[in-house]
User: Fold this.
Amino acid sequence: MSAWTFGAPWQLLWLGLALPIVLLHLFRRPRGTVEVSSIWLWQASKRKLNESHAIQRLRPYLALILQLLALLLAALFLAEPRLGGRGEGRLILIVDTSTSMLARDGNGVTALDAARLRALELAQAFDGHVGVVEAGAGARVLAPPGTGTARRALRNLRPSGNGADAHRAFQLAAERTESGDRIVFLSDRALRPATYAGAAELRVEDVSRGESNAAIVAASLVGEGSERRAVGRVWGDAARVHGQVGERTLGDAEVSEGRFVLPVDEAFGVLELRLEGDDALPLDDVAWLALGEGRGVHARVVGDVGRNVRRALRVLGVSTGGEAPPDLEIVRCRDAAGAELSMRAEALVLMAAGEDCFGVHAESENAWTRITRWERNDERMRFVSLDGVPLGTSAALAGEEPLIIAEHGPVAVSRRSAAARTTWTSLWPDGAWGRDPSFVMVVQNLVASARRRRRAGGFPAGPPGRPLAVADGVDVRAPSGAAVESPAIRVPFEVGVFRVEPGERFALRHVLSEEESDLRPRFEVLRGGAQGENAREDDVQAPSQAAPWFAAFFLLTVAADALWAGRKRA
Amino acid sequence: MHRSRRRGSSVEFADHRAYVPGDDLRRIDWNAYARLEELVLRLHVAEDELRLYVLIDASASMAFGDPTKLELAQRLAAGLSYVALHGGDRVAVHVLGVEGSERARGRQGVPRVLRAIERMTAGGPTALMESVERFLRQKARPGLVVLLSDWMDFQGQGEYASGDARAVAPGLQAVDRLLGARFEVATFHLLARSELEPDLEGTQRVVDVESGEAVDVHVDDALLREYDTRLRAFLGAAESHCARRGGSYVRLASDAPVERALIAFLRGESTRALSP
Assistant:
């Protein structure tokens, strides 16, 4: 018969808390002290009750018993108990969940799917205890070995953001293995080298299909007026970058040594830059550049919006069908060939072109996107409590604004400037949050803010990227004072003078880091280093991390119980 | 000369009562023994003046209640003394556990007795048996003894400490002792409302005001039910004990109307009607 062993036996030290708990219970004051003529009746009643009902004797100790039981269970949980000794062998599967694992092969299968499949095969074939460790933006133990949760953890794997902390993942795996055990790291190898110092055998399996990738990793506007250009850098072997304002193709540019320069002859709108060709990771072959500032306010609904979005818009009195409403436009999401994309979940895009911009790049990969970005001080969010909303993490991108990473991958980026701020926010309309009134408040505040800014700017609505329509008799002037005479610019008639003040130029970067965009395999394992090297505990969510919080909570509970018991009766 | 409520030795038959050791054997009703096979005494209406002895328990436990049990005892004592003194009888007021007494006869003694009653304060332990023995050592002539107490005297009573409600409490032993000394005994059992219906909940430390002993109890419905059961058993045992011995027994809550209790007692009405 197999004996119980513990993956983290030191966690059993928490059982030492039993002593202070018992002492607290013994020395806590009764709820109140009452003087009586004689205690005989109380003594006799208590004795009689204790004799006739054994459970009554335990009643005063019920809280103590429950606390000790909870402590025992918690300590056992933290100690990772498992049936069987260490000699039976263990297999730790480390899975790279960085965003680059979303790269697809020619059959549309992502590297993460391939890793998941391979891990399940390995788990099925292995006869011992299997554990799962995630190497994503943070490293964490998803399934301690011996708990029988490995397959479920593998099935629930999701992208975790930019980068894979393989070093910490190796540490977590090494702590749970010993000589004779095995560790398998499943990755596309698009990450930095990491050190492994464990005793178990480590093998790295490349789950990428060797597909090359290209990405726009930087884009910005340079120059003034007619000299204005869009410039940027490209990873990989992309041949061409297309720039487009609305429906006008500005032209192609040869990519030379990873850099591109595109002419820009439009004053306003949103310039979309797109790489040509099939990529392993199409998430990062698009970037947007906002031309000018305060050029109208637009809200756009992409896709067949879900029930929650329709409900929210109906509450706001915004129509999403038939004739396009003044602030919202329904568009379909199409791929490069013009075919309508089939999206498992729809995405809501509220876009205020110019100063503020909200949107999501809605492709099938983004079916899982959820709200990921907000500004705590953003007035549009002042009515909204985001407690309970699944939020992403924020990782520093060298020299830039934080890159926002959702629970399942990066989806938004923010770039702050002195005069304007661009924030991308993606919403998951069919998620649980869409049923919450706060969702309606978010949409309402977004629309109200857009309308207010449009009124202040005096510019009419219009789809972003499309030319402004200028009515007869209305002069539109550039900031230099020169009249804008482009026939493409038309705006509906409105009394007054439309002022044009191109603001600070800014660029929207794609959402992936250079490291992740460059999918060329370069990962290697460095042997050596101290196994007990200090770990970055802040990004580890192994069960042991919960221990201090558990202890604090538990002690607080016990203390509160003792205080409550000692409270004088009112 | 007044017709006393005391059973005397005149020719007018008054009542029977159970025989207790020390009674005059000549007064045993042998005819009744033949019928009942129980020793009973024939009681006759005494033709001498009434001697009223008011024994007041002023222990610390009597300070409970609103009004306190001691206040109720004082009012009862004052009322009974007033009636007796106005009838020209003799009255002696004793504080249990304290040497000496306040004695008076006739109406002129009313103010003195009332002042003595008013000066009483609660404090100290209850020692009913010892106090009664001290009273008997004063060689008082037989008369009517009115005992005003809460009978909360369980010190050193192993049976009671073990929860045996059938055991004889010291208060009841004191009644027996008085009856054996040929006193007529009327007992007022005084209780605070908080003793009859305790308003407690949760874990409590219950402290005996006289002994300082404490016990931690978890007060819930089950404990309160058990408390009530034991309290009723204790009260019932006291009442039946007095009835068997031929003594009067009146149970009163400290917030009960005194006038009604006094009138009912003087008329000899059922004590149950006054019971809380």
